[in-house]
Amino acid sequence: MGLCRRRPTCVPLLTKCHRQLRLQWAREHPDCTMDEWKRVAWSDESRFLIHHVDGRVRVRRLTGEQLVPSYTAGHSQAGGGGIMLWGTFSWAALGPVVAVEQTMKAANYLNIIADQLHPYMAFVFPTGNVIFQQHNAPNHKARIVLEWFQEHTDEFHLMSWPPNSPDLNPMEHIWDVMEPQLRAQTPPCPNISALRDRCLDIWYNLSPVMYQKLVASMPRRVAAVLKAKGGATRY
């Protein structure tokens, strides 16, 4: 019958309300031109660990050999430590990427917005009329952060963003490109400092062709959400 055993596809957990809000957002953006998408700066955070095991490694062994060294995979508590990366990009250029070793609180995020995002937006979009995208994490919606954006509405505006919608954010796919590049490097990162340096090196060597293709996918992403009536998409 053509049926095969496969790992289930991971998709965001979407409530009825989430689907309605995603569909509403897609209905508000079906006719955006590429020139309009090119004037959006996308952002996101992702965590990178020193030791990463995705659980998909398989070995062939006999019963009782589960502890034979050649059939085991080393594991460190909390992945041996890691960093949170915040980054932003647009069609025109990669923006800054910031490594955060502690929990990202509202004050940390405000510092990034003021010290990193603001100069980038002013340099890449000197005439203004640009939109900044961020997801709905609590630290993004904190009063001190929203007040800062309100004070800078003459330079750029915040994009309204539907909940649980990583498939609509092309920034998510940049992390997907970076992770295997990081894991392919040898020897493995010995410490947090080396992990940070490697992540930053990978970021600043990302291909413009790659991230411009991600921006160019926005009309298809919007269409996919419309077709799914706000449900999950292949993105």
UniProtKB/TrEMBL annotation:
Q: Where in the numbering of this chain does the Tc1-like transposase DDE domain appear? A: 40-186
Q: What is this protein called?
A: Transposable element Tc1 transposase
* Gene designation: tc1a_490
Q: What PANTHER family does the record point to? A: TRANSPOSABLE ELEMENT TC1 TRANSPOSASE, TRANSPOSABLE ELEMENT-RELATED
Q: From which domain of life does this come?
A: Eukaryota
GO MF, one term, reads: nucleic acid binding
